[in-house]
Amino acid sequence: MVLKGQERPSCYYPIVTSIILPKDWNGYNLNGANAGVIFIDTDYKFQILRLVNIMEKRIMGKTEHDKLDTSKKTSSNDIEVLVKECLKKIMIVRCTSSFQLLVTLHSLESTISNNPDIAVIMIDSISAFYWIDRCNGGENIGAQETNMKHIVQQLSKLVKNYNLVLFATKALNFKKTNKENESKGDNCASPSEKKVLKDNHAEFLCKSWYKFVKHRLIFHKEKSFSVYCNSLKVDIQFTINEGGICFK
């Protein structure tokens, strides 16, 4: 799945939280996956303190409103211990070039094979080195896309061989513009307005990446926040705050 647009960082923290939290804890239903995640940070924007804050708010919210049959009281120290244990399930890797990203993906194969709890790979963002590769490749499109094609091949191999889920963010470096799009309002509640978001999106990475991606979420922020998904047939409304994503 690919998350695109301006609000990408606000969305992957709740996703990571849902992955590494346990399903149940001390009689409370946290509804987590209790799995491991590899987070590849190419934009150098990942903030561990923000993740901890969202995790704590999620846990405290559950202990206050979703209590099961238990008389056990939960202290702040208990929550701190849980958060520390959950943070052991996330592996953060940083890359400074597309070649380094490619080498990293190859080196991670042994890590994944030795840790069956790892279920998710997240990359923020997959398009971080687009302009650098384009410059280094000169006028040869094949040279520009060489590393990206190999990255897609390795990601496809990891996802298939180890049954992983891949989340990747991508900047909207290019978008389609026309008079119709500019005349549309900010609230994308109607199907016709959703089409504006879809029409604004233009794929700029290599074709192998375009074919590899199964689902895309396109985030768009004007006076009001809106999101378009090309694979869902239903409307899903939510807000994003310090506690993460809150579905209405």
Structural write-up:
It is built from nine helices and eleven strands. The protein is of the alpha/beta class and 248 residues long. The chain has a single domain (2-247), classed as 3-Layer(aba) Sandwich (Rossmann fold), CATH 3.40.50. The strands form three sheets. The chain has a seven-stranded mixed sheet with strand order 5-4-6-7-1-8-9, with helices on both faces. A two-stranded antiparallel sheet has the order 2-3. Helix 4 (98-114) packs parallel to helix 6 (141-162). The two termini are 22 Å apart.
Report the principal-axis shape: globular
Specify the CATH class.
Alpha Beta
Number of domains: 1
Distance between the termini: 22 Å
Features:
248 residues; alpha/beta; Rossmann fold; seven-stranded mixed beta sheet; globular
